[in-house]
Amino acid sequence: MAAAEAALVRELTDPLAVVGIDEAGRGPWAGPVVAAAVILDPARPIEGLADSKKLSRKKREALFPLIMERARVGIGEASVREIDRLNILKASMLAMRRAFADLDAGGRPPELAIVDGDHTPELPVPAVPVIGGDGRSAAIGAASIIAKVTRDRIMAELDLIHPGFGWAHNAGYGTAEHLTALERQGTTGHHRTSFAPIARLIAGAPVEAEPTADEVAAE
């Protein structure tokens, strides 16, 4: 806790030294997990930054280009194949490492990473986990927006290739609509076969939609 608080203070006092990192897509049944790394520029402030889950889709889409224009941003993802091979936690950490590596080389190198959640990836700089960081740190909040919008766009593109699952609006979460389509059409190469609901479906066992999936997908 003390380390997290100190890291948040460092972000406030020296924001160019701190990179915020977050991911989107750990819970869905389909699609990649996407991470973003963001260093905010105090000379180019962005109003309205917050945890992406507390913002409407319209607000996230409006903030996305502002963050991309005014901040240093890196984006990384781990594929479904990597999720199934490594597990979702390790794949999330891999996506975060790729996001950090994707930061442009121009500007001051970051000296500290603050990461949403209770795990941190191995990085070339010290990394501090911050529980609820997407609501406590502007940089992590910005990263959550970039990761969420990027992943939503990926799922919308996949929805055009594999219609019927509702990925353009449920983002691959285990909604009733998604489950019905799975029972009717079967799985695709974008489904996470290591996830228990998909594994049960493939085995012919009964599966229930996730009770909060519609709510989470709408966030």
TrEMBL record:
Keywords on this record? Cytoplasm, Endonuclease, Hydrolase, Manganese, Metal-binding, Nuclease
- What cofactor(s) does the depicted protein rely on? Mn(2+); Mg(2+)
Which InterPro entries does the record match to this protein?
RNase_HII, RNase_HII/HIII, RNase_HII/HIII_dom, RNaseH-like_sf, RNaseH_sf
Q: Name one GO biological process term.
A: DNA replication, removal of RNA primer
The record places domain RNase H type-2 at 16-207
* Cofactor binding description: Manganese or magnesium. Binds 1 divalent metal ion per monomer in the absence of substrate. May bind a second metal ion after substrate binding.
Residues reported to bind a divalent metal cation: D22, E23, D116
One Pfam family for this entry, by name? RNase_HII
The Enzyme Commission number assigned here is 3.1.26.4
Under catalytic activity, the entry for this protein gives:
Endonucleolytic cleavage to 5'-phosphomonoester
In terms of CDD domains, this protein maps to: RNase_HII_bacteria_HII_like (cd07182)
Query: Where is the chain membrane-spanning?
Result: none
SUPFAM superfamilies with a match to the protein in the record? Ribonuclease H-like
GO CC annotation: cytoplasm; ribonuclease H2 complex
Cellular localization per UniProt: Cytoplasm
Q: Which NCBIfam families match?
A: PRK00015.1-3
Homology family: Belongs to the RNase HII family.
Q: What is this protein called?
A: Ribonuclease HII
Tell me the organism: Tistrella mobilis
Origin organism lineage:
Bacteria, Pseudomonadati, Pseudomonadota, Alphaproteobacteria, Geminicoccales
